[in-house]
Design goal:
Layout lengths: L2 H11 L24 H13 L9 H9 L20 E3 L3 E3 L2 H11 L6 E5 L5 H7 L4 E6 L2 H14 L4 E5 L12 E6 L8 H6 E11 L6 E8 L5 E9 L11
Parallel strand pairs: 3-4, 3-6, 4-5, 6-7
Antiparallel strand pairs: 1-2, 7-8, 8-9
Length: about 250
């Protein structure tokens, strides 16, 4: 093998070079957080996502995104030491950031392509939006709690994500100005799938959403819209998410 080729391969395999080439995202990731705690992210992905006993994640692009995004900056200081263990963590306003496996598997279920336009309902601290932004063209994300929405927007901007658009509002209504969306992901649980989200889903699109009321068993559901606009739903497994509030709770 030519020496130049060997050198290039060695550089690509160095720790900290997991982020995608420029065509997959608009950020150049100059923020120092992306170089912090890389070995912990590598361990998390290998042990808790790629080799997860129940449902291992196989999509290599998703695995790279999970290695790339610095989860520790999306959680409060109190919990940052636990950022790379596979469990949910509390954030402000009685909300949570999902466990890394759930973030990765929901992302894998979306089957994202680089050119996709994605709607996320429930921005939270912004972690899921950052993972999505590594994999697709544009992310539109809605947070119903104003302080959380403002905080997530500021953090995502600071990290350099120019392809994430944050809105404070009720996610039940979606974001019709930018519809249709190729993919929709929901990180809070309504009792049933909001009709506006189904209406804003593009032909051939899919939704990944937890469904179930506060006193019910919630299931992760994958929704598909076929070429004739027909909707199909497939349950995955039981989950536990914070309930969708706003109009969904009325």
């Amino acid at each position: 093998m030519h020496n130049t080729t060997v050198l290039i391969l060695m550089i690509l395999l160095l720790p900290g070079n997991y982020c995608f080439p420029q065509e997959y995202h608009t950020s150049d990731h100059q923020h120092p957080a992306f170089d912090e705690r890389q070995s912990e992210r590598d361990r998390m992905v290998k042990n808790d996502i790629e080799n997860y006993t129940y449902q291992p994640v196989r999509d290599t692009r998703v695995l790279k995104a999970m290695r790339c995004v610095p989860r520790h900056v999306f959680v409060p200081e109190t919990y940052r030491q636990d950022a790379y263990w596979n469990h949910p963590l509390s954030i402000e306003h009685n909300q949570t950031i999902s466990q890394p496996f759930i973030v990765a598997h929901m992302t894998e279920l979306l089957e994202l392509k680089p050119g996709h336009q994605v709607l996320e309902i429930g921005t939270g601290s912004g972690y899921q939006a950052a993972v999505l932004a590594e994999l697709c063209n544009e992310v539109y994300t809605i947070e119903i709690i104003p302080p959380l929405g403002r905080q997530a927007k500021a953090l995502l901007n600071e990290l350099g994500y120019t392809n994430i658009h944050v809105k404070v509002g009720d996610g039940f209504e979606g974001w019709p100005e930018f519809a249709p969306f190729d993919r929709i992901i929901v990180t809070c649980a309504p009792e049933d799938i909001p009709q506006p989200l189904l209406d804003q889903l593009a032909i051939g699109g899919r939704i990944v959403i937890p469904v179930g009321g506060a006193s019910q068993v919630q299931y992760l559901v994958v929704v598909r819209k076929d070429k004739k606009g027909r909707i199909t739903r497939k349950k995955q497994y039981p989950v536990r998410f914070v309930p969708m509030t706003g109009k969904a709770a009325q």
